[in-house]
Amino acid sequence: MDRTERSEILSILVVNEPGVTARLGSLFARRGFNIDSFTASPTNDPTLTRITIATTGDDRKFDQILTQTAKQEFVKTVDIMDSKSIYRELLLLKVKAGKKDRSQIREIVEIYRGRIVDLSRKSLIIELTGSTEKIDGFMDMMSCYEIIDVCRTGVTGINRGDAGISDVVE
To answer: How far apart are CA 145 and CA 49, in angstroms?
Structure first.
């Protein structure tokens, strides 16, 4: 088995009940699996929640993750997202911006197709969505400015094509 570490994104449909996200997070922690990002959101079926977990490991670790997660009674499906899936992350970035920096920052924001969503005398807040790589690249460009605060949602994703929840859950 390959011992090369790689990142994967898991899409997990779970029963929409209190404590499920905590139990899933605890399962990962007990087994020594690292979570790079964890998002949970409602689906079009009110009885189900979609949890998207970005994690890193080798083949053996991923086999363990999939096996242990699928065994849980609250889990309906577990999928490793593939390259055909759509992934997005949201960034809110508050940066110090006086009059002289604003036009330069605005240019960078426009190049990355972001939006300035708040402006005060000494700072502005930028909203940006995209792949993790895009967000990382934007953060690298903004590193020469004084960053006041950062909030990232973590990655979430959905498979392309016509299949939906009703096609994977009985």
So the answer is: 38
| Tens of each residue's pLDDT in the chain, 170 residues | 557 888 888 999 999 999 999 999 998 888 888 898 999 988 889 999 999 999 888 888 888 888 999 999 999 988 888 777 888 999 999 999 999 999 999 999 999 999 999 999 999 999 999 998 999 999 999 999 999 999 999 888 888 877 666 665 65
Residue with tokens 């009703």: 166
pTM: 0.80
Residues 6+ apart with CB under 8 A from 49: 13, 14, 15, 16, 20, 21, 40, 41, 42, 43
DSSP 11-66: EEEEE--TTHHHHHHHHHHHTT--EEEEEEEE-SSTTEEEEEEEEEE-HHHHHHHH
Q: How many CA atoms lie within 13 A of 31 on its CB side?
A: 21
Whole-angstrom distance, CA of residue 96 vs CA of residue 113? 20
**Which is nearest to 55 in space by CA: 32, 83, 72?**
32
